[in-house]
Amino acid sequence: MGAITAPTAERSCLSTPYDLNLIPGLLRPLPPVYFCGEAVPLHEEAVARRLISALARNSSQSVALFRMRQRAASFFPIIEPILSRYQIPADFKYLPLVESALVGRAVSPRGAAGYWQFMPATARELGLAVAKGTDERLNLEKSTHAACRYLRYLHRQLGSWTLAAAAYNNGIGNLLGSIRRQQNRNYYYLRLNAETGKYLYRILAFKELFNNYQQYSNELPQQLLASLRKPVQQEAPAEAENVLFDEGLMINLEKQAVLAAPNPRADFTAPDERPDDLPLPNAADVFRGGIKARLVEAGDMQRGGVWVFNLTRNGMANDVAVTEGDRLYAIIEDIDAKTGRVYFRADKLYTAGSQQTMVLPLAAVDASTGRMGIKIPDVDQMKAGWTLTWKAL
After folding, report:
1. What is the pLDDT of residues 314-359, one digit of tens each?
2. Transglycosylase SLT domain spans which residues (predicted)?
3. Which DSSP helix (H) or strand (E) runs through 283?
4. What is the SS3 assignment for 35?
């Protein structure tokens, strides 16, 4: 298989023109760039600089970039049909290059693993098995299905693929908090942490280097351009996974360096300077169908333990009307001793009014982040009337 090329239609539109005198060092206008059909505002000096910075970061990694292109030639044909099935734009195939360099065995310092770099709790929430001897995060097809479910959900909540990509990196709760504080829903103008502020530009850099590198001949070193001209051959997935360990290590160290960077402004990404102690949106508002229930009877703190909760207010869950006083019989699906979190799941709701049992799968979520799994409570919390937020599955 030859070098991957972009569809011609993707480059057929002209971007907004801008004054090159405002961007020192650029000898000619940058080509128009799009992410999922949304034009990147390269007429803004800071945006153009961030893209050039992301492209330049690969200038000394020509060997690693060539290996990534080879793996992409093998793995993109697997990823692309799955993205299409979920109606996720094809540009998201570049996201796992940023996350893991398409190395299935890549593990981050925080414990995220696999091609799409899921944390264990998130992976379980998305339907992947993560247990001793089994880790479906390392399975390309299964983890891509999970990533598509997550991306589809993020887009449904945020209304923008650009914001969905940012939320994939930073979490929807954190991103919604930044949007609310800054009253701005445009990724390119939001003040975000250093890693998230660079995230989309890194995705765009891979897309441009793989498809449109000729347009950046004045910005990229000749050694990298020569490497990008070399054709790549499609390999069997097992062969493509046969990579040097230090390449995966390089990805992890790069993530650590971004998180520890003392001066995020150095790469033109301004931090969010507003106070961080403002409450994030409640999960009942973030998640359509979020409801609340108070503990009535505590069960055993172990897998399979049954706990009983009563709804505290009327609401809607998965387009089903629920009423204050309705009862949930929830089981503990899992306990993560490492993070101190417990995972509750309820499959049925007993309605107080009609005295009927209704099938309604629900899961308890952290009200501050909207993610499944909540901190294991202490006895005083439970005595005070422990109340959890639930979302329909």
Report:
1. 776 656 677 888 888 888 988 888 888 898 988 778 876 666 777 7
2. 90-187
3. helix 283-286
4. strand
